[in-house]
Structure formats: C-alpha cells, structure tokens
Write a structure and sequence with these properties.
This protein has 2 domains: 147 residues, 3-Layer(aba) Sandwich (D-Maltodextrin-Binding Protein, domain 2); 102 residues, Periplasmic binding protein-like II (D-Maltodextrin-Binding Protein, domain 2), CATH 3.40.190.10. It contains 8 helices and 12 strands. The strands form 2 sheets. Strands 1, 4, 5, 6, 7, 8, 9, 10, 11 and 12 form a 10-stranded mixed sheet that branches. A two-stranded antiparallel ribbon has the order 2-3. The protein starts with 9 loop residues before the first helix and ends in a 15-residue tail after the last helix.
Length: 284
C-alpha cells in the first residue's frame, strides 16, 4: 500500500545523511531515555513520521485517522505531538525514523522488514465497492458470476489484481496506478468518483481507502470486505519503531491495549472495515 519512487542524487544525499546521522547520534547520546534505556531523542514529545498527502491515513492538516490516533496516544502520555512529513516513497524510513527525526510510523503492515512493529492495532482487508442498486447487491466474492462482463477498477500491483486475473475480470478492468505523486493524484478517489459517475461498474480497494472514499460521494457507495477469497486479502496493521527501541515498543503496546475501544472508534468513524482475530467482520 505504500507508493514507490526512484531516489536521485544518491551521492549528495549520502553525504548529507552522514552529517545528519552524526548530529542525531550525538543528540541521542545526550537525551534521557525511557526507563533505563536511551531510545528517544526527546522522550517528552510524541514524534511521528508521516506522509503529508495521504488521506485517509495522514496529511499536514491533521485530518487522517493516523493523525487522530497519534493525538489520542500522545494525550494519554501527556505529551504534545510533532511531525516530520516525508512522502512515503523509497527512502521514507531511512530519512525519517532511522535518521532519528521522529520515533514512530503510525501504520505499517505486521512483518514489514524495514522496521520493528508493535502489536497490531487493527486488522482489515481489501473490499469491493459499487453503487447500491446497480445489480451487484449481495456480491461477496470476486468469483461471483454477476461480475462477469463488468468494468471493475483495480490498483495495479495490489493483491486483488492476481485474483481478478484468475477470475477472468481483467479484460474489461480499469487499472489505476500504484505509484503516484500524491500531491496531485489520488487513485482511490478517482476510482470511487468513476464508480459514482457510472464510468466503471465496481472497484477493489484497500479497506481503509474503500471505506473513506465511499462515504465521500452521493449516494454513498456499498463497501463489501472480501473475506471469501482463496488468496490473502487481509492484513494486520501496527506501528513501526526502530529495531533498537525495545522499551518504546513496549510502551506503545501498552497504549494500544489500554485504549482499544477509542482506537476502534476512530477507525470506525473513517469507515475502516475492522476484522476480529478470527478474520470476521466486526459490527459497525
């Protein structure tokens, strides 16, 4: 779900990063830590790494649900929130979290090998999106015969694309790009706008995007979590921290456990389809 881009000016960046890391390492050595460990540059500020143009997750105006979750957890610690905004492209973790410019990435898939992940704080899945009353009501899987002959949108390179190919849906599919400049392009919004306008019949989106953008057209679109596919469509989402930050991870784990109802409430307000530990849809 994270977009990729090509790094340029690698030699110049390497030199600048070396200077930045040296300064950050010095600051870290002088900083008080959590408990007996020295982990955070400023343990009195909840320092977040985020994308500045990535709704429904985050933006510079603080309108994403990851912004709201950061504010919630910071309030429980009695701390202010500060942000380092950087596009989530190649180099995001290196230039933010690992450069000690911030201390937590609010949303990463469990198993992401670039960071150490906390316990997951939500579990969700890809979803099918369509207009109510369009003849697709009751469709719950991509192999439903009612999708045959339909124009279905899909973000290229995402797990549903291979399922749609297997089910014979790609010939009439409309692909949307995975790699974009989020300052000017929002493929999820474009797809839901196309569904609402009748330019395509349905679309498949990552659950948080499906739920958020389906609420922003009139009439609201139907969102059906894809729970019956043979391929994996659901993922657990956690927070990412540096591999060395063990006490910080434990503190975040405690915050997640202690504030589960409020976390779920924020996610539900944004239309995120939430699954329980058995992979079943939680009631809205």
């Amino acid at each position: 779900m994270r977009r990729l881009s090509v790094d340029i000016g690698l030699g110049l960046r390497a030199g600048l990063c070396a200077v930045a890391l040296l300064a950050a390492s010095h600051a870290r050595a002088q900083a008080p830590g959590l408990g007996g460990s020295v982990e955070l540059v400023d343990p009195k500020v909840f320092r977040v790494c985020a994308d500045p143009h990535n709704l429904p997750f985050s933006n510079e105006a603080g309108q994403g649900f990851e912004n709201k979750l950061a504010a919630l957890l910071a309030s429980k610690l009695g701390e202010p929130v500060s942000y380092v905004y950087y596009p989530q492209v190649i180099g995001f973790v290196r230039n933010t979290l690992n450069a000690l410019r911030c201390d937590v990435v609010m949303g990463v898939a469990v198993g992401d090998d670039q960071v150490q992940t906390t316990n997951p704080y939500y579990r969700t899945t890809y979803a099918l999106v369509f207009k109510p009353g369009s003849g697709l009501d009751g469709v719950a899987s991509l192999d439903d015969p009612r999708l045959q002959g339909k124009h279905v949108g899909v973000v290229a390179g995402t797990p549903p694309a291979s399922v749609m190919s297997r089910d014979g849906l790609m010939a009439l599919a409309k692909p949307y790009p995975l790699t974009v400049d989020t300052r000017v392009e929002v493929p999820a919004k474009e797809m839901t706008d196309d569904i609402a306008a009748g330019r395509i019949d349905a679309g498949v989106l990552w659950g948080p995007m499906a739920g958020y953008y389906a609420q922003r057209v009139e009439p609201h679109l139907t969102v059906v979590p894809l729970l019956k596919e043979h391929e994996r469509m659901e993922f657990r989402i956690a927070m990412g921290v540096r591999r060395t930050d063990q006490e910080w991870k434990r503190k975040l784990n405690r915050l997640i456990a202690e504030n589960r109802p409020e976390i779920d409430h924020i996610l539900a307000e944004y239309g995120v389809p939430l699954l329980d530990e058995q992979g079943k849809l939680l009631s809205p």
